[in-house]
Amino acid sequence: MTVKKVDLDWANLPFAYRDTDQNVRYTWKNGRWDEGVLTDSAHIPLHMAATSLHYGQAAFEGLKAFETESGEVVVFRIDENAQRMHDSCKKILMAAPPPEMFVEAVYRVVNANRRFVPPHGSGASLYIRPLVIGTGPKVGVAPTDEYLFVVFATPAGPYFKTGFKPVNLIVEEKVDRAASLGVGDVKVAGNYAAGMRASMGAKARGYTEVLFLDAKEKKYIDESGPANFFAITAEGQYVTPLSPSILPSITNKSLITLADEMGLDPLRRPVHVEEIFSFEEAGCCGTAAVITPIGAITWGDRKVVYGDGVTPQPICTALYERLVAVQMGDAEDKWGWVRKVPGG
Ligand SMILES: *Cc1c(COP(=O)(O)O)cnc(C)c1O
Prior knowledge:
Blueprint: E1 23-29, E2 32-33, E3 37-39, H1 51-54, E4 58-60, E5 63-67, E6 73-76, H2 78-91, H3 99-112, E7 125-134, E8 147-156, E9 167-172, H4 190-204, E10 209-213, E11 221-224, E12 228-232, E13 238-241, H5 250-261, E14 267-269, E15 281-286, E16 290-299, E17 302-305, H6 314-327, E18 338-340
Parallel strand pairs: 9-10, 9-16, 13-14
Antiparallel strand pairs: 1-2, 1-3, 1-8, 4-7, 5-6, 5-7, 6-18, 7-8, 10-11, 12-13, 12-15, 15-16, 16-17
Helix pairs in contact: 2-3
Bound molecules: pyridoxal-5'-phosphate.
């Protein structure tokens, strides 16, 4: 079905919130989820003692819908997001949307906002943001028994303003994003509050983002603020950190599959920060960042530059092109990653 799209400058969309037509909300009360309702309000009435506000009972997801060349709307690896949302909720003792309900909620929102799905080839996508928050009042520290599951969508361009151009990172030694036995491996709100002062400090000094180290030994690379880290070694191997405190990125997982196909012998292992000086290429990856090549990394008073620092390197470029071709339906999807959004 063809839908008349809203009039937007699709090729120059920022990665920013924009109002769309409707969002969907499901309520957990008396031990069960309701049927969910679509609403055109962007606001949530909330009790001032809600656990999400005081004690951080809040988790989110991020995924993208794309328009294919034939005009269908597809989502990328939605089952993985559904499962991760479930894991995030369970870890901080919230009611967890069953994965089937998560998928249904995303489809409802995409269908309600079809005119905001960026056209094929524009480089933009419909960014979908599911979240679960504790809404019931508590004054003592304990999980509540009332939750809200919301899914909204907003058309968005690339996360880093530069798009597919190398970024400039700095190794963060004074701030930890997540403790090794903490909640860094789930997408819960508190992790981002914990990392914000590091990211903002780096930006104020002219860097795009930080690279966090493991909190325990401060020797191994964990990840960047909003994205996982990977590198290509001198031997041509794809390596990405193995750590209990990084968010298991679905993009990274997909790149590992693609890297394997491309003969890059992918490996998850602890990555010592000293290794940045011997890598051939490095990059950040995530739904929002896709692949963002790293042009340079500063660590204390030392700095490494990959290539000329401003041109994307060949393997990052090849991985990027492979991934986006599959996501947008331009290349064969052998793994069942891409799902057509039914209806609409
Ligand atoms: C969401 C997120 C990522 C990327 O995960 P994807 O599943 O690829 O989108 C990486 N790191 C952090 C901290 C994140 O929150």
